[in-house]
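Standup notes
- DV: blocked on the single-chain target, sequence here:
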Amino acid sequence: MPRFPLDMTARMGAYIAKNKWSPNPTWQQDPDPSRQDPFPILSGVPDSGPRTADNGTAVADNPYLKRRFPLVLMLEPLHACNLTCTGCGRIREYEDSISERLSVEQCLAAVDECGVPIVSICGGEPLMYPEIGELSARILDRKKHIYLCTNGMFIPKRLHEFKPSKRFFFNVHLDGLEETHDMAVEREGVFAEAVEGIRAAKAAGFMVCTNTTVYRETDMREIEELFAYLEQFDVDGHMLSPAYPYSAVDTTEIFLTREEVHEKFKDVDKLFARFKLNSTPSYLKFLKGERELPCTAWGNPTYNVQGWKGPCYLITDAHWEKFDDLMSQTPWENYGQGRDARCNDCMVHCGFEPTAALGVNSTLGDSLKMVAWALG
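- DV (later): unblocked, structure below
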């Protein structure tokens, strides 16, 4: 079976090809120095120029810096949530606006403005958004693909508001088996309710994948047991990502350094061989430390109640009113490993970013490997 619906693979391929060979010139512009500095949070961002990593080696220029385009929109219609997960920064960073939410029209305008083929509806808990059914339907009407990221608890209650589609996934977050997951979300019974949500969605004909975050105390053998347990529900894939330092979360001891990520994921090929991991081969090599992938933070733009979050999902130095300004006015050359200390341990979902699209497909052999992976 293909790893993704064939329509998604075809549309994504066409979109990537278009932007790779004819990138939007506005998105490649350098910041205008005459504009007022919109970065009040971060003071003293160093000017671009030669950088030196901690080991003394020179930091190479980002080869994708002038080939910027978005791939997945992280759409946050609200930040309210029914849980207080230990590793979540949203409910803490946006505490002052936790009761606010975007209108459906604002959400759709953001989708249209950046033109991405995939929309990840997240938050907060998106199934607490009153118009989530309408919003999803209208995004699907635009021929987009949706991953609705949820803790799964409200799926049975709100399932009637959705229709099964090959362009729609419920993406249910599970950080381990019952005891571990309930500890991570700080409430007993959540795992059981999430599993019931998965069961209900699959019984109704929906596609469901899971999203798991690997923390410092995570036992990778338990992750294998989790995926094996979920086989009975015939889930449509698993996303797996390490937990990196997040400035909005004070509990820093739960996060992994880059070296710890490499150690945790050294045997990830065993999971990849047995289960349907929705992570590109290049991203898994990145996690194991077998290859480097330059930062492509612009590939996953985030839009929420305060605007376009810059520069990325994890770091907030500005909120922009217009997507073009996020792309052209953010000093991208100042971010990435060796350029900003906050980026040094980040290994965020490069499998969903232009890193894979631009770098891995540079040779015929790499392209064939990507095709084989996508077709499962």
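- Follow-up: The mean pLDDT is 86.
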